[in-house]
Amino acid sequence: MNLPGATETMRYRAYGPRHLSEIASRFSLDAEFLRNAQLVCRVIPFRVNEYVLSEMIDWDAVPDDPMFQMLFPQPGMLSDADVQRLEEAVADGKRAERDTVRQIQARLNPHPSGQREFNVPLLGGESTSGLQHKYRETILYFPQQGQTCHAYCTYCFRWAQFVGDSEIRFAAVEPSQLVAYLADHPEVEDVLVTGGDPMMMSTERLREHIEPLLSVPTVRCIRIGTKALAYWPYRFVDDEDADDLLRLFERVIDSGRNLAVMAHVSHGRELGTDVVREAVSRLRATGALIFCQAPLVARVNDAPSVWSDMWRAQLAMGALPYYMFVERDTGPHDYFKVPLSDAVAIFQTAYSSLPGLARTVRGPVMSTTPGKIVIDGVEQSPDGRFFRMRFLQARNAGLVGRPFRAPFSEHASWLSEIGPLTADTPDDIAKAVRSAGESQ
Ligand SMILES: *Cc1c(COP(=O)(O)O)cnc(C)c1O
Ligand code: SF4
């Protein structure tokens, strides 16, 4: 897939819905695909850039190519009925279009797992913006200028914010509330800067958000959640301020803190170009640690070999496999979902082939309202078949690490689709799991 000249400097250029027909003619996508994509992209966000177009997609394998599935609106992501309603609404004018788009989006569960309502910390009795504090030791920080990405994943669980759902554009313009909150909460050791993609920010902007944290002695780790290694590795190599970015990371590390890049890597292809290898090696040279995570998504990475190859590649590059997530119940979930029973099998097959050093990975993990739940396996016992689960993280720390059983289901793809827990489940766990099911 490496085109001649692929490692030459590329200037970042994004393409959105307006460029779909240009892209279609450049890569010979047929008229029917284009027509559908132009409708679907009103509901599900679309953005690509020159790097993902020329380096990530195998155009000979389209439409089944995993990266093409991940980046382009596909037939089947919306129901035929919705596509038809959209088409009629578009013909009826802007207003009809907007109303119909909103109705369809509202049905796609745009705010999964209580993102909006829960976990917003208070400062002097007032709610804050751009902060979420769910697990005792870690706070999430959403800088306002990092709430987009270099390209959009069609399966994104934060998709609503990219299509202008302004209500969830909860984000922080600057870090003063964060710093004040941290001063009151010395138990928070870990600040996870997230988005969107914080790597969308210039180094100067990012510095304004990060540097003030270095004056808080209780902060020991700064994590940055990003998909830039996959979607724009030049950010770390030869963007204008790439060197300054690496100096900023070094400064964090020199202060005695850990700088962790939480890289969203969905497919081994994302690690295969010269520029991504260079980006990883430049990041590692700063002393930063790289942890890799992604959801398990049908049509993108739902085969054990995809994961085991990817985890091996990560280990070889010096990046640590961290989480395999279960895709959340949002957006075109019916298109992308993988039954939990398959997720367990895919994880176990991939995991069992790994060298020990790559067995740092955990999964499949559901990120639910009460916490992160891993499915450790399927248990066959005299009283039936069960999923064996465990909280890896929980709002209520007392739940962490205690195994419990949930009735096996062949088709369930989220906790909410699983039957009631057995009567011998401890009350606190049963209550938490029930609340996870309800709010989905
Ligand atoms: C996943 C997550 C974290 C980080 O959890 P780790 O297990 O420490 O990686 C923090 N806050 C929220 C809300 C999360 O979903
Ligand atoms: S990189 Fe992350 S936030 Fe951005 S579109 Fe993909 S899943 Fe969503």
UniProtKB/TrEMBL annotation:
<keyword id="KW-0408">Iron</keyword>
<keyword id="KW-0663">Pyridoxal phosphate</keyword>
<dbReference type="InterPro" id="IPR058240">
    <property type="entry name" value="rSAM_sf"/>
</dbReference>
<keyword id="KW-0479">Metal-binding</keyword>
<dbReference type="InterPro" id="IPR003739">
    <property type="entry name" value="Lys_aminomutase/Glu_NH3_mut"/>
</dbReference>
<protein>
    <submittedName>
        <fullName>KamA family protein</fullName>
    </submittedName>
</protein>
<dbReference type="InterPro" id="IPR013785">
    <property type="entry name" value="Aldolase_TIM"/>
</dbReference>
<dbReference type="GO" id="GO:0003824">
    <property type="term" value="F:catalytic activity"/>
</dbReference>
<keyword id="KW-0411">Iron-sulfur</keyword>
<keyword id="KW-0004">4Fe-4S</keyword>
<dbReference type="InterPro" id="IPR007197">
    <property type="entry name" value="rSAM"/>
</dbReference>
<dbReference type="GO" id="GO:0046872">
    <property type="term" value="F:metal ion binding"/>
</dbReference>
<dbReference type="GO" id="GO:0051539">
    <property type="term" value="F:4 iron, 4 sulfur cluster binding"/>
</dbReference>
<keyword id="KW-0949">S-adenosyl-L-methionine</keyword>
